[in-house]
Amino acid sequence: MPRIATKFEILGLVIAELKKPAAGAPLHAIAQKMEDHIQMARLGVIGPALADFLPSEPPGPGEPMPETYAGVWKTLFTFVGGEQGLFATLKDLREIVDKLQNIADKEDWDALQKLQDDGEDQQIKEKADNFMAMIQGIQDEAKNIAEMIGNGLRPNVDTKSPGDPVPGPETWTIRDLIHWKKTGQFAKTLIDKATGDEQLAYAYGWLVGYTAHVCASPFLNSAAGGPSRTQWSRQRFVRNYVDAWVHGFYQTGASMMGDDPTPPYASWPDLCEANLQDQLIDPGKHPLDPLDLMTWIKVRKPLPTDVLPPGFGKYWVECFTAVYGPPPPGGGITPDGLNGACVLTWLVLWFMTSGDVVGCNLVEPMQPPDNCGDSPQELDPFQKDPETGNPTPPPDANPNGDVDGLSAVCGIFFAVVGVIISLMGGGFAGLSTFVGGVAGVNSAKDALWPKWRCQLFWLRKYIFNGLTGLHKLLAISGFGYPDAEELGEDPITMTLLGVEHSWKAGKSLTMS
After folding, report:
1. Fewer CB atoms near the end CB (10 Å): N or C, the chain?
2. Residues contacting 263, CB < 8 A, separation 6+
3. Residues sharing a CB contact under 8 Å with residue 139, sequence separation 6 or more, in sequence order
4. How far apart are CA 369 and CA 367, in angstroms?
5. How far apart are CA 57 and CA 445, in angstroms?
6. How many CA atoms lie within 13 A of 386 on its CB side?
7. Are 442 and 405 in contact (CB under 8 A)?
8. How many whole angstroms separate alpha carbon 37 and alpha carbon 29?
9. What ranges in 148-196 are assigned the alpha helix state H?
């Protein structure tokens, strides 16, 4: 079935169609209700995907994260969030590099010395040490996430229904139940029991999403090789590419001639900076802070319970009960649970479509005017040194030959640079072992600035490559969207996995 970004586009197309004169007054009124309460209509068009995050309540003290889709995302958020998480670290990294660049551009010796005098270099190092300690557990946690996806999210065929390729509904999650059982009856019940325009806008949005599932799922199942029940991970991957294509195609009003669009893919807007979270929950009415939410998930604090209109949760539970019977205990079908599921959906959309975490449309740094030497063959944190096994660090810059006394004065600069490099994936202790200070060597300081500008350029280049690689890896794993230009052909992504292959997933997955 199509995912949220595609269904948002479908909802917009349906509303525009219902507003045409030929549609008639009754359909005009439906379109107007959805347009007047567009956030509720979008929540409705998401449909059963809201139940991906049911139950939304945190696990109890000492309990592991459940092996569910929500558990996978919550585990990811515990590493992304927090004062020493990926989000805060990358934000600090960018600010530090910008600060150093400003010092180097202005050749501000006093500002450089102040870094050391104020102890800022030590603060950076402490942050790096803390972050590196966290990195030590990331590989193990990544394996846990992979096991959760590979085992916990498979159909339940080995426990309550051994040997049965289609387990009985009593073993299904709430998400699967409302995706696959009595779906038309539930859509009708939402409309019949709606009171007030907000609930009607939600119900009509749900009906649009229901229709999108009926029409689009056969095509997606064909591309993925099966339905979500048997091809859960491949479905996520395929639907991410479809989302990116649909968003770009309709936002640009493009046309297709075979595999080639006009305008070309490179000029299409990227879904990774569409900020779809703001289309789901109005930031003016309910300002949510992703850092706070991720921290609450990490410390297992309940999520906000006031993002949905009063009475909505009661209405939804009544509709569920009328179709499926009383909600099962522990399923999370409560007004507060639905609020939490909506907040988690918002947080996933923020992670995937805000560009705040990894960045979007990253700009490759331009080489400075100084003579920085030849570009190294490997400047990529995803490439490892064959001897040490560590990621390959940026090179030492050596503009205009050596300058006497450099080793005595570059301590603070290279210590800070080395720490920043360690934040990008670690283990480069060598560049942070430079010692010395900036005092007493004024005769050599003018010759240092070209070297420092070169080192900053290589550092920026290295960070650019690292973030670009991380962005692509998130797309491969289904936790991020591909860039629009990759919908045609991508010669880079597979090289991250050590495979020399031109990636043509966009054309293969979206043409149907």
Report:
1. C
2. 252, 254
3. none
4. 7
5. 58
6. 1
7. no
8. 12
9. 174-180, 183-193
Three-state DSSP string of 33-78? HHHHCHHHHHHHHHHHHHHHHCCCCCCCCCCCCCCCHHHHHHHHHH
3-state helix, strand, coil split of the chain in percent (to 5) is 60, 0, 35
Write out the chain's pLDDT in tens, 512 residues: 688 999 999 999 999 999 999 999 999 999 999 999 999 999 999 999 999 898 888 887 778 877 777 888 888 888 788 777 778 877 777 787 788 888 888 888 888 778 777 777 676 666 656 555 554 555 455 555 555 555 555 554 444 445 556 666 667 778 888 888 999 999 999 999 999 999 999 999 999 999 999 998 888 888 878 887 777 777 877 888 899 999 999 999 999 888 888 999 889 999 989 999 999 999 999 999 999 999 999 888 999 989 999 999 999 999 999 999 999 888 889 999 999 999 999 999 999 999 888 888 788 888 787 777 665 545 555 555 666 655 555 555 454 444 333 333 334 444 444 444 444 443 333 223 222 333 344 445 666 778 778 777 877 777 777 677 777 767 777 788 888 888 877 665 555 555 565 666 666 776 65
Per the listing, tokens 């309910």 go with: 286
Q: Is the peptide bond before 55 cis (omega within 30 degrees of 0)?
A: yes
At 441, list the tokens. Answer: 């060597």
H helix or E strand, kind and range, residue 261: strand 260-262
User: What pTM was estimated for this model as a whole?
Assistant: 0.83
3-state secondary structure of 31: helix
Residue in 333, 104, 73, 142 with CA at minimum distance from that of residue 115: 104
Any idea what the Cα angle at residue 329 is, between residues 326 and 335, rounded to 5°? 75
Burial class (CB in 10 A: 0-12, 13-18, 19+), 435: exposed
What distance in Å separates the CA atoms of residue 385 and residue 230, rounded to the nearest whole number?
39
- Are 399 and 434 within 8 A, CB to CB? no
In this structure, are residues 206 and 187 in contact, taking their beta carbons and an 8 Å threshold? Answer: yes
What 3-state DSSP class applies to 216?
helix
Which residues have CB under 8 Å from 380's CB, separation 6+?
391, 392, 462, 465, 466, 469
**Buried-exposed string 67-105: b where 16+ CB fall within 10 A, e elsewhere:** bbbbbbbbbbbbbbbbebbbbbbbebbeebbeebbebbe
**Hey, how many other C-beta atoms are within 10 angstroms of the C-beta on 494?**
16
Contact 465, 375 (CB under 8 A): no
